[in-house]
Records
---
Amino acid sequence: MTTPTTDPTLAPDGIPIKRNRWFPARKRLPAAWRRPLAVVGIVIILTWTVVALLAPWVAPHDPLAQDFDRYQPPSGDHPFGTDVVGRDILSRVIYGARVSLPLAVLLVTLSVLVGATVGAIAGYVGGVVDAALMRVVDLFFAFPAIILAMAVAASLGPSLTNAVLAIVVVSWPAYARVTRSLVLSLRETNYLAASRLLGDSSGKALIKEVMPNVAGPVLVLASLELGNAVLLLSGLSFLGLGAVPPSPEWGSMVSAGAAVFYNYWVALFPGLAIFTVVLGFNFLGDAMRDALDPRSARSVATSEL
Amino acid sequence: MLFRFILSRLGSAAILSVGIILVSFILTALLPGDAATSRLGERAAADPEIVAAVRARYGLDQPLYMQFFIYLGNLLRGDLGTSIRTQNPVLSDLAQFGPASAELAIAATLIAIVVGVGFGIVASLRANGIIDQVLRVVSLGGVSIPIFWLALIAVYLFSTVNRIFPSSGRLNPGETPPPQVTGMYTFDSLVAGNWPLFISALSHLILPALVLSAPMIGLLLRFTRSSMLEVLGNEYVRAAEAKGLPRHTVVLRHVLRGALVPVITVLGTAFASLLAGTVLVEQIFGWPGIGAYAFRSASNLDLPAIVGVTLFVALVYITVNLIVDFLYGVIDPRIRRA
C-alpha cells in the first residue's frame, strides 16, 4: 500500500472512487423522487417558498394594517378571519412565511457552521482535543433543547435574533457528531494520504479534501433539521421569547389566539401553516433518509430527537 | 463485568453532571444582569447592605473560579438561589411542581409506548402496504405537529365544543388533593381508595397526556418499525418459520424480543422531547408542573428559577438515560463490553 504506484483515485479493489464534490451519493437521489410522500413534501416546500417570495403580491391586505373589525370569522373577504386588532389573518400568515423560512435556514446554517467546524477539528486532530470537544458535545446533548433555549432567550431578552442564537446553542452538537465521525472514517483513506504526500498542510487538506466529502451527508442532516428548526423557533415565539409584536410570526400568532380559542380561526390558521411547513420538510427528509441512508446522519438524527 | 459496566456509566454520568453544573454556573455568572440582585427581590435589591451580604454569601466578590466552587457548595446544600417571581427558594418550588410534571410525563410515556410500539409492530408486519403508508404519515405527522397548537385544538374540541374533558387544572374546583404519597394525584387517590377523586384526577390527566405523547408516538412508531424489520430479516426468524411455527408465535416469541431491545434505548432520548413538550402543554392546560413554572420564570426573566429548572431537568435527563443504559446492559450483555 505504501508503494508510490498506488493510485489515490482507486479503492483497494481497483474500482474508481467516485468523488462528486457536493453530493457523493447523488446518483441515488432519484429514488427519493419516486416516493409519493417526497413529492408531496417538495410541493409543500416549493409552494411556501413561492408564497414567501411573492408575499406582497399574493397577500390581499397589509399584514400590519388594523383596517377591519376585530375577530371577524372566516368569510369571503377574509378567508382566515381577522385578529384582535382587526388585521387580516390570511395576509399575516402569508407574510409569516417571510419570517419563519429564512430564519430556519439561517439558524440551521449557523448550527452547521459551528458544529461542522468543531466536529472536523475533533475528528482530524484527534487525541486529547477530540476527547475534550466530544465531552462538550455530550454536555450540550444533555440539556433539553427548549429549556436551555428558554434560559438563553430569557437572559438575553426576547427577540427573534436571540431566539435564533438560543436555538443555535442547542442544535450545533448534532452536526459536530456527524462531521467528526465522517472525518474519522476519511482520515485513513488513500487520497488524504496522497494529499499529505503532495505536501499539503493540515488546514489545506481539511478544506480541499475533507470538506467536500463531508458536505453531502451533513447537508442531508441539515435539511432534515429544517422542520425541527421551524418548530423550535415558533415554540419559543409562542412562549413570548421570540418574535415581538406586531411581527407576523406564526408561533406568536398562535399564542395570540390561545387566549381567545373560542375564536378558533385566530390560532388555527397560523398553526396550520407551521404544521404544513414542518410536515413538508419531514416528508422530504424521511424519503431522503431512506434513499441515501447515510448511516451516521440517521443515527444522529434519531438520537438527537 | 456487570459491576464494572455500571461503575463506568456512573462515572461518566457524574462527569457530565459536573459539566452541566458548570454550564448553568456560566449562565448565571456571565450573562448580562447582576447575579446578586437577580437572586433578590426588587425591594431587597434596593438595599445596598442586603446586596453586599448576598454578594459575600454567594462569593460574588471572589475570583470566578472560586465563585464556581462556592456555587457548587451551595448546590450540594440544596441552595439553587431564590426565585425572583415567587420569592421562594428555587428548590422548594421544584419540589412543589415536580410531582405534577412527573405524573404527566409518565402518563404520556405509557400512552406513547402502547400506541407507538403497537402500531410500529403492525406497520412492520404490513411493510410497504397501505396500512404501513398510513402509519408512516401518522408518525411523521406526530413529530411535525406544533404541540402547542395541537393542545389548543384538543382543548377546543374536547373541552369547549364537547365537554368531555375538563380544560385545565388537576382536579375540579373544590376537590381536595388526596393525602400526599407521591404527589401524583391519580396514584395517591388510588392508594387512599378514593374512587371519585381518582376518576376526577384521571379525567384531568388524559387530554394533556395524549397531546404530550404525540411526538413520542411518532418517534417510537418509526423506530419500532425499522427495528422489527431488521430482526424479521434475520436467519433465525426464517429458521423458526421453516420449522412450521405459526406466524404469531414467531412474531411474539422470536422477533419481538430482539426488536424491542433497541427500542429501550430511544426511550431515553424520546424522554427529552417529552420534557420539551411539557413546557408548552402545561402552560396551555393550566397544569401546575415544572414546565409551566419554567415558562412563567422565563417570561418574567426570572434567571435563578430558569437556570434552576434547566439544571434540574438536565440532571433528570441524565438519570433517565443512565437507567436506560443499565437496562440495556442487563438485557443485552454484548453492550457491557463496549
Note: The mean pLDDT of chain B is 83.
---
Amino acid sequence: MTWFSQQLINGLALGSIYALIALGYTMVYGVLRFINFAHSDVLMLGAFTAWFVAPIVARIFPPESFAGALAVMIIAAAICAVIGMVIELLAYRPLRSRPRLTVLITAIGVSLFIEYTCQHEAVFGAQTKPFPRLLPQKDFSVAGLSVNSNDILIVVVTFLLLAVLWFIVQRTKTGTAMRAVAFNDQAAALMGININRIISFTFGLGSALAGVAGVFYAMRAPGIEPLMGVQPGLRAFIAAVVGGIGNLPGAALGGLLLGLLETYAGGIPGLSNYRDGIAFAILILILLFKPAGLLGRAQVEKV
Amino acid sequence: MLPGAKRWLLLAVAAAFLVSFFSAHYNRYYLGVAIDVGINVILAVSLNLINGHTGQFSLGHAGFMAVGGYTAAKFSLVLSPHFAAGMPPSLQPLFFFIALLLGGLMAAVVGLAVGVPSLRLRGDYLAIVTLGFGEIIRVVFQNMDSVGAASGLKGIPNFTNLFWAWGLAAVTVFTVGCLVNSTYGRGFIAVHDDEVAAGAMGINPTRYKVTAFVIGAFFAGVAGGLYAHHKQFLSPTGFDFMKSIDIVVMVILGGMGRTAGVICAAIVLTLLPEVLRGFESYRMILYSLLIIGMMMARPQGLFTFRRGFKTVGG
C-alpha cells in the first residue's frame, strides 16, 4: 500500500508535466489538424532558457526564492511562446494549403533542425548540463511516504494553469475564436475572425505551456541536453491521442493517466526495462479499440 | 516496367558479379562505401514502396532492418562452428542466401504484425505508430540476452560482398518496379491518390497497404542481413529513430513514388557524408534544412524532372 501511494505521488507529478505538453499538441491539432513535431523541442528550449536566465534572476531576487522561480518560469514561457509563433510563421504558414503529409514532414524537419542545431558545439553542445536549483527542495514524510516539495509544486501549478487555460478557452473572446477556428476555419473566417492571428495565438499558448513543462521536467531530471524533449514529447503526444486529440480535458486526463501508468510500470522489476515501450503499447491499444480516444467523439468522414 | 525489364535485371546482376569479381583489387575503403550504397538503395527503394507509391508515411523502417539483421546474423553465428568443423566452404553462399531470406521473412512477419493494426490509421497517426513500433523493436533487442542485449552482437562472419549488395539492390529495384507497374500495383497508386475512391472502385485499401508494408519490410530485412554481414557488428542503437529518418530523407529527396529518383538520392546521400567527413557535425543540420526546403520548394523530389504517366505522386 505504501508502495502504491508512493508511486501515485511520483506519477501525478510526471503526469502533470505530460498533461501540460499534451495540451500544446492537442490545441495545435485542433486548429491546424497536424502534429507539431517541433513541440517537444520547444519544451527543450524552455528548459535551456531557464538555464540561461536562472543565474541572471538570482542576482535580482534572493536565490532559491519563489519570486525568482516564478520570474524564471514566466520568462521561459514567454520566450517559448515567441519561438512557437515564429516556427508557425516561418515553417507552417507558407504550407497551410498543402497536403497534410507535406506539413507533417516539414514538422519533422523543423524538429530535427532545432535538435541538431542545439547539439552543435557552437550552440549548446550535446553533453548534459546540470540544471540549477530554482527552489529549496524538501522531502516531507507523511504517513510513511516521502513527498518531494517540488512534486507538490508541479502538481499545484499544473492544476492552476489548467484552470487558467480553461478560462481563456471558454470565457474570453479569443478563446471563443479559437474554438470557432477549430470547429470550422472557413466559417470562422467568414464571421470576421482573423485566422492567422488565432492560429498564432494558439501556437503561442501551447508553446508557453510547453516552456513551463520544460522547466518542470528539467527540475526532476538529472540534467538538460538538446534531446531531452524527445521522450517526454512523444509520451505527451501519446497522452493527447489517448485522451482524444483536439480535446483539452482529454489531453490533461491522458497526460495524468500516462504518467501514472509509466511510474507504476517502472516500479515493477520485470517491466522496468521495457519502460520506453509501454507508452507506445498503450497508444497502439487505444488506437485499436477506441481510435477517437477516451474523451473524443468519433467523426464520420464525409467524402 | 518495360517488357525487357528482366533483361535489365540480368544485366545488372551480371554487372554486379563482374565488378565484384575484381574486388580484391579495389581499395577496401571504397569497396565498403560501395557496399553501403547497395544496402541503402535496397532500404530506400523498399521504403519508397510504402511511403511513396502507397502513400503511407512510415517512420519505422529501421525496426524491420533490425529484425532482418539480427535474424540473419544469429543464423550465421549458429552455423559458423559447423563450417569450422569441415563443412565444404562452397556451401557458404547458399547458407548466406538462406540467412538473408530468413532475415527478410522474419522482417515480413513482423511487418505483417505491425501493419495490420497500424495501417488502419492515416497520416500523422500512422507516422507516430510506426515510430513507436520501431522503438519497441529496438527496446526488445536491447533486452534480449541471446543477441547480446545492449552491448550488441559481435563476430558476425563477413559474407557481404559487392555482388550480394548490388545484385540484391538490382533484385529489389526490379521487384518493386515490376510490382508497381503491374495491374495489381495500380492498386497501390490508387490507394495513394484517393483511398475512398479506390475503395469505391473495389480495391481493398487496407489489404494493399498491408501488402506494401510486408513487401517493404521484407526487403528492409534483407538489407539488414547484408548490413550485419558487412559491418560484422550489430548494436540496438544503430537502429534507432535516426536511422529511419536517414532512409526517409532519401525517399523525400528522391521524390516520393519515383524509383529512379530515390536510387539517385540513396547513392548521393551515402556518398555525401563520406565526402564531407570534416563537416560531420553539420550533416544532420543540413539534412533537416533539406527536408524543410524540399517541402516548401520541391515537394515532388530533387531528382524528378518530368511528371511521367507511370509514376504518380505529390
Note: Chain A touches chain B through 44 residues (CB under 8 Å).
